[in-house]
Amino acid sequence: MGYGCTWRAIGWISLLMGGIAYAQNDNAFLPSRTQPPSVQFGQGFQDIAPSLPTSKPGSVQTIPKVEQPEGSSRGRESIITAELKGLVFVEKEEQIKADGVMGVVGVIGSSDLLQKPEFTKRMQRFIGKPVTLGGLDEITKEVINYFRDQGFPVVNVVVPQQNVKDGVIQILAIEARVGRVKVEGARWFRPDNIRAEVGLREGDKIDANQLQDDVGWLNTNPFRTCDLIFEPGEKEGTTDLVIQTKDRLPLRLYTTFDNYGIDLTGKNRQSLGFNVGNLFSLDHQAGFQYTTAWKDIFLLRLLLHPVSLAQQHDHLRKLYQI
């Protein structure tokens, strides 16, 4: 008797621990901004879920790499230094020493991005060589392209006036900061809701990868298409983000007929449903579908309710069988 109780106790504990472990790991299968609903939410979900309109991908403005036009160095052959020994990169104009810098060998950067080995390698090819005015243009072009390759498309690189001593040149590299985030063209969606889906805020560095993710998220709503472009900001060193939006009435009614059913319910099925793309003006999406099969009057009603949570940047899909 004692052994039986013991084994039953162990069995209940194992079951309880298994339930706890499942509950802890269950979040891994919840829909999110980057993960669609898992099959754990129901087999054949896509087969019976409300139909959704096709969404269109948006885009983030691509700034092309800086090219050195053929012959652009003509007339810029004046030698600045016979041998370049060091390059010093700073982020603020007040960090420039007008009287020059001495004793620097190699490449020195004031930011984490400019201290990466990849950047040092790209600049190292200029070290030990004479530098002309045309050569300075080539250096600044290489710096700009490096920033863009790293996902920071807007940067201002200049060589301020200075005395070049001991073969050391100081270069000012300023990454543009976000000015305003503007929404243009939205008629059926609130600009504040669209703006809230952009993760960058005023004063942040312009990260193209982050913006591409944000634009992709905005375009998961099939009733609008958003593209992002850059505009010069009002404040010096800032760039405005402009979300150009094309939207339409966020309401769709539809009916379908197919013969993809199963023997149990009947092959022929007919559905009637609707989609709402801006429920309560909160950017929420909702869909309802009523499906009927002609065998034994099989009825199935489903409600799909994707919810956009701007602050958490998460995505929930709620499926209800009524």
Report on the structure:
This protein is an alpha+beta fold. Helices cover 22% and strands 32% of the residues. The strands form four sheets. It has a five-stranded antiparallel sheet with strand order 10-11-12-13-14, with no helix packed on it. It has a four-stranded mixed sheet with strand order 3-2-6-5, covered by helices on one side. The protein has a three-stranded mixed sheet with strand order 7-9-8. The radius of gyration is 30 Å and the shape is elongated. The chain starts with a helix and ends with a strand. Mean pLDDT is 79; it is low at 1-30, 39-43 and 309-322.
Order of helices and strands: HHEEEHEHEEEHHEEEEEEE
In one word, what is the shape? elongated
CATH class of the largest domain: Alpha Beta
Number of helices: 6
Radius of gyration: 30 Å
Number of strands: 14
Structural class estimated from helices and strands: alpha+beta
Which stretches are low in confidence, meaning pLDDT under 50 for 5 or more residues running?
1-30, 39-43, 309-322
How many individual domains?
3
Level-2 CATH architecture of the largest domain? Roll
Termini separation comes to 47 Å
* Widest beta sheet: strand line-up: 10-11-12-13-14
Largest sheet: 5 strands, antiparallel
Quickly list its features:
single chain, 322 residues, alpha+beta, Ubiquitin-like (UB roll), 4-stranded mixed beta sheet, elongated, disordered N terminus, disordered C terminus
